[in-house]
Amino acid sequence: MDKGEAPAPKSHKSHDTTQQDEIYVPRLAGISTCLKTSFTPVSLTTKVSAQQVRKDGAQIVCGNGSTTDYFTSLIWSLDGTTVLLPTASHRLDTYVLPPDLLDPLPSQLYHDLEPYTTHGLPEPTHATIIHPCYTLSSPQTCLYLTSPCNLPIRLLSPFAKGILATYPLVKSTTEAWIAPYSLLFNPRDLNTFFAGADGLVAAFDLQRNGEGPISKISTSKRRQRRAGPAARLDPTGNMRGIVSAMAMNAEGVLAAGTFTGKLGLYNANSAAPLVTECNLPGDARTGITSLHFNPSPFRSNYLLAVSRVCCSMHLFDIRNPSAPLSVLCGRQAKTQQRLSVDFTENGEVWAGGTDGVVSVWEGVGLQDGELQAAWGWEAHGDVIGGVGVHPLGARVVASCSGSRRYDPPRSYQGARPDCEDIEESEMSDTDSVSSQSVSASSASSQKSPASIPDSSLKLWAL
Fold first, then answer.
1. What are phi and psi of 459, to 5 degrees?
2. Of the candidates 321, 222, 339, the residue with the CA atom closest to the CA atom of residue 262
3. Residue 83 backbone class (left: φ over 0; alpha: ψ -120 to 50; beta: rest)
4. How far apart are CA 434 and CA 445, in angstroms?
5. CB 61 within 8 A of CB 461
6. What is the DSSP string of 351-367?
7. Spatial CA neighbour of 109 closest among 65, 56, 66, 63
8. Which strand (E) or helix (H) includes residue 181?
9. Angle between the 419-428 and 430-445 helix axes, to the nearest 10 degrees?
10. 28: confidence class by pLDDT, cuts 50, 70, 90
11. How many angstroms separate the CA atoms of 198 and 218, rounded?
């Protein structure tokens, strides 16, 4: 990574267009930077030194960790300078990578990262995306969208403390807020974005603050009301469920997947938008969590579908969507948590699992049938919720981990005793009560190594 690509976020110097060595982000007039209420930087539980690097060549260069909160996903900006991470505590943390990311450090083995800005949200978020034109040296382009539950879609910026714009999606019959579970910028028109909800894909104009969608695509149509309670679904466009994932290739084909395991291809500019439906096998119809087209314009016909509670990922050639072209196997992903993956132009798929291992598949799209992971490494001690490769081709990979954990309820042997029986036992045999309390406390204090949380962000140099 070139030092000139990433600015120094803590500097307050004015921007000088003639200066080539280092670019500084100007402070916008009337807009103050956000408060840095964030994770407390702590030492990582897993350290990788130069002597501990395995034969795959993965070496940690940055990190940040916490034991009270965790990151739910990871999103790179296309300029490669910023990583956006939603958290389980309804926050959006923006990390700006240091200019000396790949420079050797004499005093320690890795950098400690601290969020540049943090946005607190009143409700949990279903989806978050970064604008494709995000450029850190131009603050007016640093925008991202998020969809909090039971609230309008919000447009935010790491250089603005408040909300820049809102886009309401309201149910016409009840006037209730509709929270989209997926968001996608239109690559053919960057002023337009799509929002996926229950049986609906809505298109919004980014320039129309406070206005509703400019067009809608119904993914699940019902017959007229006169059919009564026995109304059947329309056979055309029958994709019942919440649109949980979307992707669009260079030709304008919109892929939409639902939590019911349906996957359809749409033409957003046509009156009859449904083009065809991709057939997922039975074990993958547990709910689609992410969709990815190959970003290369020469391989944009390859579509990768990732499902929850499914250890395999399915690659489709949209020219023949009747069956998957290949199946990517070897990942541990038996969880309801969204595990985001990355699909690169050279046909590599990077994905994490519940075992804390980052796996890499090479040559995806060049062969059919089952495809095993080519290599991987143990990156975290918990579920890896997000993996992303540097968008500009640098051999830098970001990964984040963490999962929600609950203390197991206290169990009783046999029937629960009444209060009188407890009092009698306490008065008659104090030794037995004390022994029971000691055994209960010792049982509750015993924790398996897998229950120790590892909530951290790590950047790896390969």
1. -115, 135
2. 321
3. beta
4. 16
5. yes
6. EE-TTSEEEEE-STTSS
7. 63
8. none
9. 110
10. very low
11. 9
288, burial (CB in 10 Å: exposed 0-12, middle 13-18, buried 19+) = buried
Q: Residue 290 burial (CB < 10 Å; 0-12/13-18/19+)?
A: buried
Q: Give the angle subtended at the CA of 95 by the CAs of 91 and 96, to the nearest 5°.
A: 150
Query: Residues in the chain, how many?
Result: 462
Tokens read off for 295: 């970003």
The CA angle 366-371-372, to the nearest 5 degrees, is 135
Q: What is the pLDDT of residues 123-169, one digit of tens each?
A: 999 999 999 999 999 999 999 999 999 899 999 999 988 899 999 99
Q: Is the pLDDT of residue 239 over 70?
A: yes
Place of tokens 């990922």: 313
Alpha carbon distance 385, 181 (integer Å): 17
Which neighbouring-strand residues pair with 131?
Answer: none
Q: 392 burial class (0-12, 13-18, 19+ CB within 10 angstroms)?
A: middle
Q: Which helix (H) or strand (E) holds 316?
A: strand 313-317
Task: Give me Rg for the CA atoms of the chain.
Answer: 25
Query: Residue 34 corresponds to which tokens in the numbers above?
Result: 């956000």
